[in-house]
Amino acid sequence: MLQEKTIAIIKATVPVLEVHGEAITRRFYERLFEAHPELLNVFNINNQRQGRQQAALANAVYAAAVHIEKLDTIIPVVKQIGAKHRSLGVLPAHYPIVGEHLLGAMRDVLQENATDEIISAWAEAYGIIAQAFIDVEKELYEAAAEQPGGWEGLRSFRITRRIKESDVIDSFYLEPLDQKSIAAFQPGQYLTLQLKAPGVDYAQMRHYSLSDSPNKSYYRISVKREDERDTTPGGLISRYIHSLSVGDTVEVAAPAGEFIIPENTQPLTLLSGGVGMTPFMSYMNTAADQASERHIVWIHAALNGDVHAFAEESEQLAERLTHLTKRVVYERPTDRDERDKQFDAKGYITADVLREAGFHPEGLFFICGPEPFMRAMYHLLTKLGVKQENITFEFFGPASSIEAQAIAN
């Protein structure tokens, strides 16, 4: 437990963090990588270049300061981040290193305003927060290694099949090189791959949703190739994955993730944008295998039919799931799309699209896709009276505040 004096000091720094939070986290990463370049393999270099990682850490530090007297409220976030830490190989020994450079960055940026009293208070608070992560991650490491077919660290898998799903998305079927059994997973979870792209000095870790049902001899991930667009750089690792062939091997951490749909009878609405449909493909395949009778509305948004992955497979699933209502929305349909009528609405997912599909406002809602899409869907759902606690979304980059940004827009 934190002392009352410590809590008061931390709360007093909230206005300072609002102003200087991102400068502190930028300086933190500079210090961290200068002292420990080996940790570069844990962080997505594109997110670093775009400032997303720095902004996400600033949000996390700010949230810790705001909720410092009731840290139990952030435990669900600790579990979500802890799952990613486990898949990335974050260890207890890393936390003192992070603490040292975070406090050092506060001193560097705030200078004389970073008094010994303030730094001491933050050191005490960081110790408690770090221990919460260490405790959660210990359980996750043990569960991953001790489950049937589980393993510790990384395991070598061979690409045994590669299927083109759209102009930009390919599915990769992965089987273990040792030919032993593999761990089961829950629909909505992901694999973490360690990949060493040519021209990069260190390996990179990436999360990819599992897109098929569990309990098979393989894992399937479906990866979008992120090409350069205007001023947006392309995805270094996604393009590298798309250069791989059947027979190539990759290093994989055991399945992880908290984007899991509870098994109950509540009506369910799934909203996906682009490659965000992959975790829902896993859920739908599993539901079809189990002959589920749950009421499900699934609305998928894509630019057009050329980039709409799993169009045929999802139609087959809709035929097997008699209680599923599926709708497809194309932002800018091609002439072929217009001719073949392979979509249900043009433009964006709107309240009218949701109502026509028969969604239940009192049910559960899961959203996956690009951040602007998730923000727009969250805003739409809350306007329609859906309770915030019934809305779940999935991040693969650094998590920013979808709720705050949606409300602000």
Could you characterize what this model shows?
- It catalyses: 2 nitric oxide + NADH + 2 O2 = 2 nitrate + NAD(+) + H(+); 2 nitric oxide + NADPH + 2 O2 = 2 nitrate + NADP(+) + H(+).
- It comes from Ferroacidibacillus organovorans.
- InterPro entries: Cbr1-like_FAD-bd_dom, FAD-bd_FR_type, FNR_nucleotide-bd, Globin, Globin-like_sf, Globin/Proto, Hmp, OxRdtase_FAD/NAD-bd.
- With 409 residues, the protein is an alpha/beta fold.
- Helices cover 43% and strands 19% of the residues.
- The protein has 14 helices and twelve strands.
- The strands form two sheets. Strands 4-3-6-1-2-5 form a six-stranded antiparallel sheet. A six-stranded parallel sheet has the order 10-9-8-7-11-12, with helices on one face.
- Strand 1 and strand 2 form a beta hairpin.
- Helix 2 packs across helix 6, helix 5 packs across helix 7 and helix 6 runs antiparallel to helix 7.
- It is globular.
- The protein starts with a helix and ends with a helix.
- The C terminus is likely disordered.
